[in-house]
Design a protein that fits this description.
Length: 429
């Protein structure tokens, strides 16, 4: 069995000195693994779930779903019985409390995630965290190459539109580099060196990096580690403020806003992590707390900065600019039908390795979103979906029209970390 927390909770078993027995503890010594091979365990856990439903819970999270079935001779992850158990739990909800949704936490490589939706005939989880897109997004920021992200999103968009993801940039946990290393290998990228580059970049060790994060559960034996940090600090806002560099701060703010625009552009439910709406920075005070010092996830679990919330209406401040820009994006997303989860989505090649193009269509509503994942301005050919549309296009954020005559040689210039939400207007008679 691979270790989940090799540094803070090494091993998978704990010896109990009072009775001389050994118990499986995949996550922490105080957190015993349950034996779902015993029917009483399934019955009791289902009873717990129904108790929560009776207390008014509308969404219930199934934590660490891939680990819940154990079998000798296996790594005890993603076994077929797991899907049977989730199916049984879903059936119980359908019969007793059909209004309750099951949210599955599946922190696994891309190919392992989608099966936890089940099928339309045999559903399992109603929603899943979009873990892979989150970590692939940060990979794209570090590499300035959208190839893997486009490949990942093509897989997501190929799923039935009933598959519902919660999309996010950050959460209370670390960023685990659960990337598609098979695809990266075909591009000449080896897993261990690639992870090292990502962790070096986001911890500020790599030359020229403006990102500020910390490693979590670094395992030198495998060359593996996860990453912690708030969105603002990983984007460079912390280092820019520390150096009093206005150009670096402007670049970091554009990165922060662009990433949220990208998250808002995905199908599903966008989720803002507490503090990201104000640009909350890393909280290093946990180092001085013995109860927290061994867990670097507390770096991004600082108390909510209520003093910054008072600045949210002042766009001359960092919190005010971030809050108002995100509020604007949220309002646009809420009123535009093209952002619906059941809209058609396509990801054509942009012709530039740093720019991602996302096309959304719902009925007659058409939207083309473009995102520059590089700090440098990038020219791209006018996307075919725009050239071939006889009407006009308007950027929903700036409200400025896009002037183009459908010529092959015409290009669009995206500033560093720039983005556009272009909406098509019908051709005038």
């Amino acid at each position: 069995m691979p270790q989940v927390f090799p540094t803070t909770a090494p091993g998978n078993f704990t010896q109990l000195t009072d009775c001389g027995q050994v118990v499986m503890t995949t996550f922490y010594p105080f957190q015993w693994d349950l034996n779902y091979g015993n029917p009483m365990v399934l019955n009791d856990m289902t009873e717990n779930l129904l108790y929560l439903a009776n207390r008014g819970m509308d969404v219930i999270r199934l934590d660490a779903v891939p680990y819940i079935w154990k079998q000798l001779g296996t790594n005890c992850r993603n076994l077929p019985q797991v899907h049977t158990l989730v199916r049984l739990i879903h059936l119980a909800c359908q019969v007793v409390c059909p209004g309750v949704l099951l949210l599955g936490e599946v922190v696994m490589e891309p190919s392992k995630v989608a099966p936890y939706f089940g099928t339309p005939e045999r559903p399992q989880c109603d929603m899943l965290y979009n873990v892979t897109t989150m970590c692939t997004t940060w990979n794209t920021i570090a590499t300035r190459d959208v190839g893997l992200l486009r490949h990942q999103m093509e897989q997501v968009c190929a799923l039935p539109r009933t598959c519902l993801f919660q999309n996010y940039l950050r959460c209370h946990d670390d960023i685990g580099w659960g990337l598609d290393y098979g695809w990266l290998a075909r591009q000449g990228q080896a897993e261990v060196p690639h992870k090292k580059y990502l962790n070096d970049w986001f911890t500020g060790r790599y030359p020229g990096s403006w990102s500020r994060g910390e490693l979590y559960n670094d395992d030198p034996r495998l060359g593996d580690a996860r990453l912690c940090g708030t969105t603002a600090s990983l984007c460079g806002i912390e280092s820019a403020l520390a150096s009093s560099d206005p150009e670096a701060l402007e670049q970091a703010l554009r990165c922060h806003i662009m990433l949220h625009a990208w998250m808002f552009s995905q199908s599903g439910i966008p989720v803002l992590y507490s503090g990201d709406e104000l640009g909350q920075l890393n909280d290093y005070r946990y180092h001085g707390d013995p109860a927290k010092a061994d867990d670097s996830r507390y770096l991004h679990r600082g108390n909510f900065p209520w003093e910054l919330s008072a600045l949210r209406k002042d766009k001359a401040t960092v919190p005010g600019r971030i809050f108002q820009d995100l509020r604007r994006l949220e309002r646009i997303r809420g009123r535009e039908p093209a952002f619906r989860s059941d809209a058609e989505v396509a990801l054509p090649d942009s012709g530039n390795h740093s720019v991602l193009v996302l096309c959304r269509r719902y009925g007659e509503e058409k939207l083309v979103a473009l995102f520059n994942f590089s700090e440098h301005a990038q020219p791209i050919p006018v996307p075919e979906s725009i050239r071939n549309h006889p009407g006009s296009w308007t950027d929903l954020v700036s409200r400025q029209p896009l002037e183009c005559k459908s010529l092959e040689e015409e290009t669009l210039d995206l500033p560093g970390y720039g983005f556009l939400w272009l909406k098509a207007s019908p051709a005038e008679p």
